[in-house]
Write a structure and sequence with these properties.
The chain has helices at about 15-25, 45-50, 115-120, 190-205; strands at about 5-10, 25-30, 40-45, 60-65, 70-80, 85-95, 100-110, 125, 130-135, 145-150, 155-160, 170, 180-185. Strand 2 and strand 3 form a beta hairpin. The protein is α+β, with helices and mostly antiparallel strands. Strands 1-3-2-6-5-4 form a six-stranded mixed beta barrel. A four-stranded mixed sheet has the order 10-7-9-12, with no helix packed on it.
């Protein structure tokens, strides 16, 4: 997915200038990285507000159209107003096509409804993780990583090591811990009902005392 947003180079800097720009419907931001020095930019709040609602805007390569010149960037940080639906500042990083990047990409869970855990076990599936930290060259960056739950059994968990990563993509983990991605557990009500049914069966099958 190719997402482009428009920006202009920002001349006015400082907190008071930023307040004036925000009142005028603009968002101050910055693009950093690479051999160039950091570039203060200015963006339309309405455009970026709607783009930020798109999942891909947070995890894929973006094209910043700055005064008609395009740069490839990724979103690194978003600052929101404490209680208003207002974006206060955006940070972007320039991307070098020859340098591997670290990115958090979303996990898309599929086939949970046909898994044995749900169809047979009546389990609830808990998504413990919703994104994964990966490392790859920019051209190999996936929009998301699919997690197939079709074989998930009752009371079973899938860990990061169980995930099938796209070609040329690797985990960007810094520890030997293997985190849980998703787990299937019976609800408390179902578990209590099952225990009660077992108890009734056991009592019904017991040999009467002489």
């Amino acid at each position: 997915m190719n997402i482009t947003f428009k920006a202009t180079l920002r001349e006015q800097q400082g907190s008071s200038a930023s307040r004036r720009l925000r009142r005028a419907g603009q968002i101050p931001g910055i693009i950093y990285g690479g051999e160039q020095k950091a570039s203060p930019i200015l963006m339309d709040h309405n455009e970026l507000f709607h783009l930020l609602k798109k999942e891909a805007f947070h995890s894929t390569l973006l094209s910043a159209d700055i005064n008609g010149k395009k740069e490839t960037v990724v979103l690194r940080d978003t600052q929101w107003h404490p209680y208003k639906q207002q974006v206060m500042h955006l940070d972007f990083q320039r991307i070098d096509a020859k340098q591997a990047i670290h990115m958090k990409v979303p996990l898309h869970f599929v086939n949970g409804e046909i898994s044995p855990a749900v169809k047979i076990g009546g389990c609830l599936i808990a998504h413990v993780m919703t994104e994964l930290d990966i490392k790859c060259l920019p051209k190999h960056l996936p929009e998301f990583i699919e997690v197939d739950l079709s074989k998930l059994e009752a009371n079973q968990s899938l860990h990061v090591s169980h995930l099938v990563l796209p070609k040329n993509v690797e985990l960007a983990q810094h520890t030997d811990v293997d985190p849980v991605v998703v787990s299937a557990t019976q609800s408390r009500i179902d578990a209590e009902a099952e225990a009660a049914a077992e108890q009734v069966q056991q009592e019904g099958g017991a040999t009467p005392a002489a």
